[in-house]
Amino acid sequence: MRGGLRISKKSSKFAAQLNLTHMKRTISLILLCACACVYSLPAFSWGQEGHRIIAKIAYDHLNKKAKKQVDAVLGTRGIIYWANWPDEIKSDTIYKQSIKDGWHFQDFNGGMTDSAVVAALTDYPKEGGNLFRALDSLVNRLQNTDRSQLSLTEYRAQTDHVLRFIVHLSGDRYCPMHVAHMDDRGGNDVKMQWFGRNTRLHTVWDTNLIESQGYSYTEYAQMIEDSFGWERSFIEQMTDAELLVRTYHLTSDIYAYQQTWDGNTYHYIYRWHRPMEEQLYIAGIRLAQLLNSIYQ
After folding, report:
1. 3-state secondary structure of 19
2. 265: Cβ–Cβ under 8 A, 6 or more apart, which residues?
3. How far apart are CA 290 and CA 82, in angstroms?
4. 96 pLDDT exceeds 90?
5. 249-283 pLDDT, tens per residue?
6. According to the model, what pLDDT value does residue 289 have?
7. Nearest Cα to 57, choosing from 272, 295, 280, 290?
8. Is the pLDDT of residue 43 over 60?
């Protein structure tokens, strides 16, 4: 070709083969990384939809004073929109101590007595996480911030992130895999198949079970409130200790089921979607109860 580079048919064929080989290697690398990520990525607590459901239920049950205060800090319905922020900042350097110190979970050993489990609420175990310590500290900080001495801008600056963490961590404490077993990192080391895809027990409870129902978070929150609303007064009367023991026993039942489960995902969903929904409802009601008491 005049004015250009002459490329032989043999060279063109070689170039095509080289590109095909490179493409295959690239695809293989992508697939390998994707498979590795299934087991290596950190699991989020309740997943995005779960935390929004909890926050929506809580928002629906805030009294007028608490709702006004919460909206003033986080914006109208901000309790819902910021519910996942403590998970989203895990890849940032901000509040890196929340990851290092295990704010999002408090794992236990299997087979513990109820009294030993309850002791974690006040004794703050040295291992297994710092969920209860972190939540208590944040609640105390919010309660001790005197708004009467601050402008709204100053009050927001001092309490915005504190409130976001309280909303999120209050939900975490009712997720079975956030009070699960230390020896498998809260179910993160328990591998499962979910409709033929690799996953982990932790992820099933954080995300898969919720997503299997196909609702938006608003639809799901409403359905859960309609289904479990009759339990509200009983939940509000229970102590933190009673609810923690209840969640710990639920977690033990989940582990026991792993030993007999036939591997059928539909059977798993049928067995566990209602207990999961009840935990979401409990988390929402208790969050509302906590915020109503803070802003009384």
Report:
1. helix
2. 193, 194, 195
3. 17
4. no
5. 999 999 999 999 999 999 999 999 999 999 999 99
6. 98
7. 280
8. no
